[in-house]
Amino acid sequence: MEIVRxxxxxxxxxxxxxxxxATKAWFKIDFVPKMSRVLxxxxxxxxxxxxxxxxxxxxxxxxxxxxELIAATxxxxxxxxx
Amino acid sequence: MWYxxxxxxxxxxxxxxxxxxxxxxxxxxxxxxxxxxxxxxxxEPEVKTVLxxxxxxxxxxxxxxxxxxMARDPIFLSGxxxxxxxxxxxxxxxxxxxxxxxxxxxxxxxSDYGVDLHLREARRLGLTEQGLTEAVEVVQLFNTVTKIAxxxxxxPDFDPRLEGAGRRPAHE
Lengths: 82, 172
Hints:
By secondary structure, chain A is an all-alpha fold. Chain A contains 4 helices and no strands. In chain A, helix 2 crosses helix 3 (43-57). Chain B is mainly alpha-helical. Chain B is 61% helix and 0% strand. Chain B is built from 7 helices and no strands. Chain B has helices spanning 2-21, 45-57, 65-70, 74-88, 95-108, 112-124, 129-152. In chain B, helix 2 packs parallel to helix 4, helix 5 (95-108) packs antiparallel against helix 6 (112-124) and helix 5 packs across helix 7 (129-152). Chain B is globular, with a radius of gyration of 18 Å. Chains A and B meet through helix 2, helix 3 and helix 4 of A and helix 1, helix 5 and helix 7 of B.
């Protein structure tokens, strides 16, 4: 059970809701991930973090798919259920 | 493919636990730390055959200390090495990518021994400096979000009991 009340997408600013729509398209999902709402709860944190994420997760020397495998490995070692 | 990721994560984490737990010095950038246990240096011929194969797999002059330690029990060494070799061989994922995953697992697990070994292996198998930069960025990003998720005890977005296109947020 979460220890905080998660910010609802509609409570975010218009700019951040637009970012949430881009996140849905990026992951090909029809909902806004909780983590996006958590990060954007403090926009001064979430916006630059999002910029760093989009930069780092795009295709480059490693493909986006390869990067998702690295992410899954980190999550496995950290035993992160989310 | 996900089985391959899991095997690599599991084997890497276990070897790192043994190597760092017993304070073995990293293979390529030795720290000078002294192992808590004696690491065997001489072996019976049949064990040496396995250890030579291991050294060859890693393109090293001698086998890594963590496998020399295992040689105390040749039957265990033989089984665990064969499983390790299978886990790291080219299949759906190639060996270079598996070494990148092992590096990510080692960094996340804060393993001096594992980071040293898998950084060298990933580079030897062709990981470029740009590739290394990108891999470390992903490691950093996902160590951030996993810690945030755990701190807030976030429950998964997906219900793991549902598969594919039918998946919906678990909280709906």
